[in-house]
Amino acid sequence: MRGTAAGMEIQENLALALRRGKSRGLRWGIKGNEKDFYREALAQLDLGLQTRMSSKVGLLSGGQRQALTLLMATLQKPKLLLLDEHTAALDPKTARKVLEITEKIVTEQELTA
Asked: How does residue 50 score in pLDDT terms, banded at 50, 70 and 90?
């Protein structure tokens, strides 16, 4: 639950993750091409979040938040992804879905996890 800002929108959380480590000016906003990028990334999760980008993260289920956190962690294409029982607090069905998403992302991005 600490990987996201609950009071911010899904797209705002993604913007923070994408801009992590980069210099930023005073302007805050999400450009149209960024929204398209976020929509495509969320669609890959297959959780329907791409239609809820302006929803507050605090309104998502635990599994949705965990999948979003995983997506945020991999937007910058890390060399190493550390996962510490990232499905421990989820019910078995949701944990299975998050593990499938994890495997897909790790395989596609050729990450060490």
From this structure: very high
Is a pLDDT exceeding 60 seen at residue 97? yes
Contact 89, 63 (CB under 8 A): no
Tell whether 42 is covered by a domain: yes
> Which of 63, 28, 33 lies closest to 49, judged by CA?
63
C-alpha distances in angstroms, 89 versus 4, 30, 63, 76, 82? 16, 32, 9, 26, 17
pLDDT of 79 reads 86
Cβ neighbours of residue 4 under 8 Å, at least 6 residues apart? 13, 57, 65, 68, 69, 72
How many structural domains comprise the chain? 1
Strand, coil or helix: 26: coil
Residue 69 lies in a domain: yes
12: number of Cβ within 10 Å: 19
Q: Is there a domain that residue 103 lies in?
A: yes
What is the residue range of 51's domain? 10-20+28-108
What gap in Å lies between CA 111 and CA 27, rounded to an integer? 33
